[in-house]
Design goal:
InterPro entries: DUF378. Pfam families: DUF378 (PF04070). The protein has 68 residues and is an all-alpha fold. It contains 3 helices and no strands. The protein has one domain.
């Protein structure tokens, strides 16, 4: 779940970077505009992933075991 959330947050961050630098919304261009159903689903999933990722800030980190 953490990796999926991270992937979606990265997609959202790259999309915002494209919007900020080039005024190009990749999600909207791929899925038929900002108000298209698929675009809204992607935007919603990215938002949920961002909210879920907040929990990563407050988790205790455990050291990973080497060689297992």
């Amino acid at each position: 779940m953490d990796r999926l959330a991270l992937l979606l947050v990265i997609i959202g961050a790259l999309n915002w970077g494209l919007i900020g630098l080039f005024q190009f919304d990749l999600v909207a261009s791929l899925f038929g505009g900002q108000s298209a159903l698929l675009s809204r689903i992607v935007y919603s999933l990215v938002g949920i992933a961002g909210a879920y990722s907040i929990s990563l800030l407050f988790r205790e980190r455990t050291p990973e075991r080497q060689g297992e």
